[in-house]
Amino acid sequence: MMGVYEDRVLSELYVVYDADGTVIGEVIYSVRKWLGSHCSACDITHGVHHEKPEFTEFKSAFRVPVLNIHRDEMDVRLRVCVAGRLPCVVGRLSNGEYVFLVDNPTLEMCKGSVELMQREIEAGIARNAIALPDDTNDWQGEDQQVPGEQACAMPMNVRDSSVPYV
Question: 38's torsion region: left (phi>0), alpha (psi -120 to 50) or beta?
Answer without folding.
Answer: beta
